[in-house]
Amino acid sequence: MTGEARDMPVELVARWRDLGLWQDISLAEAMARGAYEHPDALLHIHSARGSSEATLAEAHAAGRRLAGALHGLGLRAGDVIAMQLPNCLENAILFQAAAAIGCVILPIVHIFGPAELGQVLGDSRAKALVMPDRWRNIDFLDRLRRLPELPHLAHRILIGEAAPPGSIAWGELVGSDPPSVDVDPNAPAILLYTSGTTAAPKGAQYSANSFIAELRARAPNEGRPPCRLSPWPSGHVAGTLGVFGHAVLGQPMVLMDAWDAEAAAELIERFAVAQSSGTPFHLAGLMEAAARDGRDLSSLEQFIIGATTVPPSVVQASEAAGIRCCRSYGSTEMPTFSQCLPDDPLDKRLNSDGRLNPGCEARIVDDAGRDLPPGSEGELAVRGAERFLGYTDPELDRSSFLPDGWFLTGDIARIDTDGFLAITDRKKDIIIRGGENISSREVEELLLRVPGVREAAAIGMPDRRMGERVCAVLLVEDGAAPTLAAIGAAFQEMGVARQKAPEKIVILPDLPRTPTGKVQKAELRRQLAQMFAAATE
């Protein structure tokens, strides 16, 4: 425990106790409270290059010192600080620093190449960008050089050994405690981007109140929070929640900078991890590694699984291994909307996404936004305290909300008589690969830039480990025969995330269409399923 963590004004501590549910406080105040109440909460970062860790008191104090340096650069409340970082201590400290001076925190997933990164930085009008010089096989300096002209981006901050001209080395940022600032807890404080169903990433804005409401819904009712392991990158909403779970709730947290099933099993055993989350890919790999290496996973009380279609076989396998698998549903716009609990009946955990979280509301509506009868399938509309404020583009809000704050998820669902939600289809045309949304439309537009491709349809090809993989169905010019390698190279040249490159190509003479010429994706999926099944017989 450090003196810095306990050095809080008496009147501030009294206000925290009076508030009880953490309402109407800024992120800076929420983080200060977390450090005051849980100074020894451990944050452990696992990386193949070497692990690191810090207590919450240490991370909070380092964040405040960094905040002073950022304030010295001219960053002020309301400015956007973007960070494209893996899970690392610098990332956690930067979250603390940005909140301390009232800046909007913008974590960006590392898979975004210069094209998507430039779109995000331009749309958000970010004033600062923090990146490593290199991480794993990604050359971030090359990515930085390939960014478009960004007049609002005043500061480029580099972590690592090389800081090119015009940028600032992380090690040069030395400061002291920043001046106190008044921040409206209902103003934008966190910005997360998701591809959704459009070609350009969409910016979802959160206030301190809305994001803290999500965190408090995840907190235990009493006692010290259990240790959690998160495999999610910080730019993903689940990864951002992992960093804030430590910073605000004081939850002991183990973060991985990249998924490694063998390492995850060892970390769960070493830190007696009680909770984790991921996709079927993560859970299947974890169980296989633990069985192979003889790891003890008995501390793992709950594995929350979501972000993609969840095969019942994965839930059954986890039960056999003694792990209570609990499906959940959420999105970048409303992170955790429903969740199964460990003591829910197995058939509910196999076939539903759980009951609505406290304070969340749902409607099942038709295409006109009218309520459907109980038990019907229709589009899911949601609202609650943890719902995002809206998109950075007001035009997107006009088509995404019903009156009275109901957000249209674009997912087809039903709610049974016991109140359990089941997502049955996707109205939005997206591919979910390993928990990440990939826009089919964007992939199709990129494919049309590949020589020899006349028409393209991108669909999700079911995959046991990743949930879905990108399958490109092509109509090609006479004599053209594009290969996976050629298309992958073309996507890399265009500067987009490699996860968006197709992993299977099917060339057809024509595509199934409606009378108006629109490709019938449902019929195409049916035809391909028959083709794939026949090929394996």
CATH topology (level 3) name of the domain at 3-41 and 50-213: Rossmann fold
Which strand order does the major sheet show? 2-1-13-12-14-15-16-17-18
**End-to-end span in angstroms?**
63 Å
Instruction: Give the C-level CATH assignment of the domain at 3-41 and 50-213.
Output: Alpha Beta
Number of strands: 29
Low-confidence stretches: 1-6
State the secondary-structure class: alpha/beta
Strand residues, percent: 15-25%
Counted by DSSP, the helix tally is: 17
CATH architecture of the domain at 3-41 and 50-213, by name, is: 3-Layer(aba) Sandwich
Q: Would you tell me the overall average pLDDT?
A: 88
What's the CATH H-level homologous superfamily of the domain at 3-41 and 50-213? Answer: ANL, N-terminal domain
Rg value: 23 Å
Q: What is the helix content?
A: 25-40%
The main β sheet shows up as: 9 strands, mixed
Shape, per Cα inertia axes: globular
Tags for this entry?
5-stranded parallel β-sheet; disordered N terminus; 29 strands; 17 helices; 9-stranded mixed β-sheet; 537 residues; GMP Synthetase, Chain A, domain 3; alpha/beta
Please summarize what this structure is.
With about 525 residues, the protein is of the alpha/beta class.
